[in-house]
Amino acid sequence: MTSVLEAQGLGKRYGRRWALRDCTIDIPQGHVVGLVGPNGAGKTTLLKLATGVLEPTTGGIGVLGGRPAAGPAQLARVGFVAQDTPVYSALTVADHLRIGARLNPGWDATLARERIVRLGLDPAHRAGRLSGGQRAQLALTLGLAKRPDLLILDEPVASLDPLARRDFLQGLMEATAEHRFSVVLSSHLVSDLERTCDYLIVLVDSRVQVAGRTEELLAAHHRLTGPRRTDGTPPTAGRVVSARHTDRQSTFVVAGDAPAMDPAWTVSGLGMEDLVLAYMDHSTAADLEALR
Residue 83 and residue 14: Cα distance in Å, rounded? Predict the structure, then answer.
């Protein structure tokens, strides 16, 4: 099966600062991929490399088996909704649909028209008069009507209120189920990804910390809670992802097989938010060093 996105040693540097480095991933088709990490982690840089907006400093990247933005055929296969769901304020909703039809050879006019009607958008209204949620839905409509094999969305709901975010993500999920395309959705709002994504990539400090199918990642990570460990190591051979210590208690998140039960320790599973926060937790190294 062709990878929807494949990168090997991918990096992008601005002067002396690396916005992304040593990125190696291989995402199969057919997933809704959540790309999550703190602001400045490299999410937008990775997506701009995937769309061909940026050229890599090191390594390489392939999208749907080809080079990003390699030509009209490749461009037609990828839809992109950038941050702040950009639309043209002075143009009407109908103008946006006409431009979409002219620029995209696979344009689905019926899908676009029916979606605008279902959303209750007036084709004669200028985009600048729409609410933030309506502008986001218009941008999503343009991306969907292109009928791409891959739809890339860069923090599309970050500025929306909870109701508008819910409606946007609901529309995205309905379209994904109906048209069977792949999605890469970046966000720092883990709760949004938890509802929509079945594949996860965590970016922290410009590096990929973990990537894989969500169910498999959750099954491979455990939280251990028990008496404070004076040596700073958990009672298991698993890899330590994060560590927290109080005067009497230690809590570890570890990656690996389920550890053998110790009566003094509690082993529990993780949710997606727990997993993401563990990889974003920078306290591990300092905590371990302090206990040595």
Answer: 20
